[in-house]
Amino acid sequence: MYIVVVGSGRVGYYLTKALLDEGHEVVIVEKNVDFCKIINDELGGICVRGDGCEAATLEELGTARADVLIAVTGDDEDNLVACQVAKHKFNVPRTIARIRNPQNEIIFKKLGIDVTVSSTKVILEHIQEEVSAHPLTHLLSIRDKGLEVVEIRISADSKAIGKTLQELVLPPGTKLALIISTTEKPRVPTNDTVIQADDRVIAIVSAEFEEGLRRALGKE
Amino acid sequence: MKVIIVGCSRVGAYLAEQLGAKGHEVTVLDTDAYSFHRLSTGFNGRALVGNGLDQEALRKAGIEDADVFVVVTQGDNRNVMAAQIARHIFHVPRVVCRIYDPLRQELYDTLGLETISPTVVCADMLQEKVEGQ
């Protein structure tokens, strides 16, 4: 495919490298003369100095025959305009824009930009995933006994789901003190209580066995 | 009329004063509070610090019930993006934006934005002067 990349910051640089490796024909447009030189020295003469939002510059690059234009400058407004010019002046079939402010996703979509990539959103989602992958929260330390009171959220893929307390193999000395389920009132579990997804379990565990408890109630 | 002006540039400040003096309800938005020094002490509108691309700031400026939205920051791309947000997200009845680059102006004109290119206007006037001599 013939791909025009607008902006040669870090994102543009590594993106172009990857696209070249995959065998695509790539050209970068960059305003900054120093960045242009670096790219041309390292990746071969594929960087053209110019404003990727200007129709005249894009025309020089043969944008009319481009399959994709990817705008990855650091400014949302520049990325928007580069994509709009590509789309409306040169009928580029696919335009991709990087956006910084996740709020801008809506206006970009409305204006016909095919794909938006929000680094802010991607990072945020990864962090949230990481956080929910470690669903153990410390509530209280009973220091003189070396005990911790913790809350564990039973995730949908937990191997404890459907098992009774009796069937669970827990680290020595661990006590499940309370179960707060989404559907019922909080209750003190008995040996026959069945663990369900989304339950919040309040447990008392020695500090050294915390990881074991997390594993016992975590995923397969 | 309720008018929002984004960019307290020389043009923005001058326009704000003129419209304010005519009794319009004017709000000027700029990212730099220093730019408000261009407004005279007699200015009877509101001056707000905020980014014209930020929907939160635009709401604070009262975009939801504005009649006219004028965007005259120094950046063409910023202007067209703000104008398109005003038009497509907030549906302001009248949106006018400044675009220095004549080619970009032509494009956004065909996309239905009301645009003014000072480059074209000024060059045309100068040409008239030159040829009129």
Q: Mean pLDDT of chain A, as a whole number? A: 90
CATH architecture of the largest domain in chain A: 3-Layer(aba) Sandwich
Oligomer: heterodimer
Model regions low in confidence, pLDDT < 50 over at least 5 residues of chain B? none
* Strands of chain A, total number: 10
In CATH, the topology of the largest domain in chain A is named Rossmann fold
Distance between the termini of chain A: 42 Å
Calculate the mean pLDDT score of chain B and round it: 95
Descriptive report:
The complex is a heterodimer of chains A (220) and B (133). Chain A has 2 domains: 2-118, Rossmann fold; 132-216, 2-Layer Sandwich (Alpha-Beta Plaits). Chain A is built from 7 helices and 10 strands. Chain A has helices spanning 10-21, 33-43, 55-60, 76-90, 105-110, 119-133, 210-217; strands at 2-6, 25-30, 47-49, 68-71, 94-99, 115-118, 136-142, 147-153, 175-180, 200-206. The model of chain A has no long low-confidence stretch (mean pLDDT 90). Chain B is an alpha/beta fold. Chain B is 41% helix and 20% strand. Chain B has helices at 10-21, 55-60, 76-88, 102-110, 118-132; strands at residues 2-6, 25-30, 46-49, 68-71, 94-98, 114-116. Chain A binds chain B through residues 53-56, 75-78, 80-81, 84-85, 88-89, 101, 103-104, 106-107, 110-111, and chain B through 53-55, 75-78, 80-81, 84-85, 88-89, 101, 103-104, 107, 110-111.
